[in-house]
Prior knowledge:
By secondary structure, the chain is α/β, with parallel strands linked by helices. The chain is 52% helix and 14% strand. It has helices at 20-31, 38-46, 50-57, 59-72, 91-99, 110-117, 132-149, 161-173; strands at 9-13, 34-37, 79-82, 101-107, 152-155. Strands 2-3-1-4-5 form a five-stranded parallel sheet, with helices on both faces. α1 (20-31) packs across α8, α3 (50-57) packs across α4 (59-72) and α4 packs parallel to α5 (91-99). It is globular, with a radius of gyration of 15 Å. It starts with 8 loop residues before the first strand and ends with a helix. The model has no long low-confidence stretch (mean pLDDT 88).
Amino acid sequence: MTKQKLSKNIFLIGFMGTGKSTVARNLCEQHGFKIIEMDETIEEREGMSVSEIFSKKGESYFRQLETNLLIETQTQQGLVISCGGGVPLREQNVIEMKKNGMVFLLTAKPETIYDRVKDCHNRPLLENNMTVSFIAKLMEKRREKYEACADYVIYVDHKSVEEICEEILSQINE
């Protein structure tokens, strides 16, 4: 295992199902970085799932929890933060990520995402719209904001987790 020091944080953004959580875990296991899984952290703090937060308290409440968590990361270094799919849509979140980190956009074809999430029921925005065409439309709607936020774009189709992690690390080490 290669231990590496990070002087900044790594923010992983992208549409649901692009592998942000898996890549974050791998970076932590292989290189000893600390991880913040935003959705899991928020669920633990709120005592309910993201879907429950959306239905009981609303999307705007959830989005503010995401912003608050990003602000908390400002005091730390060497974190890999796996962001929820909607994080880059809020301008304040982009500002917070850029203050102390490098932002990596993981992206994939809509068909790849569909294959990965079709059996999941913890994706409130897809729950009643689980189709390739809906995923493609939502991805296109978010694409501009995702790309504007990203320092680097990584296409994950047909790549192993290890290959994606190596791509991230090579960008950090440049």
